[in-house]
Specification:
Bound molecules: zinc ion
Helix content: 25-40%
Number of helices: 6
Radius of gyration: 18 Å
Strand order of the largest sheet: 1-2-3-4-5-6-7
C-alpha cells in the first residue's frame, strides 16, 4: 500500500518536470548564437536567451542581458564591434525573469530600465507566480538585481544617443512585461515569439497570466513594425501580418 502511495507521489512530483521536458522538445529552434535583425541590431545567445545589441552613434543600447551574469557572449560581441562596456548607454529589460537581466549589472554607465511591476520581482520582494518561475527560483539562486535598476511607466518614448525606443506595456507573461519598438524592429522578450511560420505567446507554464498576455497584444495593432526580435527564437520577418493572423486565429 505504502509503495503505491509512493509511486503516486513520485508521478505527481514528476508531472511538472515532464511537462517542461515536453515544452523544450517542442520549442522553436533558435536562430543560433548570433543573429542580425538588421544592420546595427545584433542578437547573441547569452545563457539561453537572446540579448540584443543596438548600435548608437557613440556606443550601444542593450535590450535584455541574458542569464549569464558574466555576460561572455555580450562582451565578445561588443568587443567585435569596437564598443567598450562603459559605452553601453542603457539596458532595456523586457521583463523580470532572470534569463533576461542577469548580465545587466556589468554595464556600469548604463541606465537599466524595467517595466512597471517587475522591479519588485527582480529585487526578490515579490514571488514568481508562473510554474516555471517558481521552479527556477527554488533550484537556482536568482541573479542579484542590477544596482541602477529603474522602473518605467510603460508608455515612454526613450532616446539614447540618437536612438529612439517606444515603450509598449504588454502585461501578462509577467506583470511588468514591456516591448520596445526601435525603427521597424519590435523587441518582444517572451510576450510574443516566433513559432513555426508564425508567432505565438509563451506557453502558460512559463507565464503568470497567458490570457492577459494575449489580450495585451491588442496594443500592438496601431504600431508600425516589420520584424520581431524575441527572447528565445530570434528574428521573425513580416511580423505585423503574422501577428494579425495569430490574433484572428486565436480570438
Ligand atoms: Zn520570461
Amino acid at each position: 500500500m505504502k509503495k503505491k502511495i509512493l509511486i503516486v507521489l513520485v508521478v505527481v512530483a514528476a508531472l511538472p518536470l515532464l511537462a517542461l521536458l515536453a515544452l523544450f522538445a517542442t520549442r522553436e529552434k533558435p536562430d543560433g548564437p548570433r543573429v542580425e535583425a538588421e544592420p546595427g541590431v545584433v542578437g547573441v545567445e547569452a545563457g539561453g536567451a537572446y540579448a540584443w545589441i543596438v548600435r548608437t552613434t557613440h556606443g550601444a543600447v542593450l535590450v535584455d542581458a541574458g542569464l549569464d551574469s558574466k555576460g561572455a557572449a555580450i562582451l565578445a560581441e561588443l568587443q567585435a564591434q569596437g564598443v567598450e562596456p562603459d559605452q553601453v548607454q542603457a539596458v532595456l529589460i523586457t521583463h523580470g525573469h532572470p534569463d533576461h537581466y542577469a548580465g545587466a549589472g556589468l554595464f556600469k554607465k548604463a541606465k537599466v530600465l524595467v517595466g512597471p511591476g517587475d522591479l519588485a520581482m527582480i529585487r526578490g520582494d515579490k514571488a514568481h507566480h508562473a510554474v516555471f518561475g517558481k521552479m527556477m527560483s527554488t533550484v537556482m539562486t536568482l541573479p542579484p538585481a542590477p544596482p541602477a535598476l529603474t522602473e518605467l511607466q510603460g508608455d515612454e518614448l526613450l532616446e539614447f544617443d540618437g536612438a529612439q525606443f517606444k515603450v509598449v506595456a504588454i502585461p501578462g507573461h509577467s506583470p511588468g512585461s514591456v516591448m520596445y519598438l526601435y525603427k521597424d524592429v519590435l523587441f518582444t522578450g517572451d510576450s510574443l515569439l516566433r513559432k513555426q511560420d508564425g508567432v505565438a505567446i509563451s506557453p502558460s507554464l512559463m507565464s503568470e497570466d497567458s490570457e492577459r498576455n494575449f489580450a495585451s497584444l491588442r496594443a500592438l495593432e496601431p504600431l508600425r513594425f516589420d520584424k520581431l526580435a524575441d527572447g528565445h527564437a530570434g528574428v521573425t520577418l513580416d511580423a505585423k501580418r503574422k501577428l494579425a493572423r495569430f490574433l484572428a486565429a486565436t480570438r
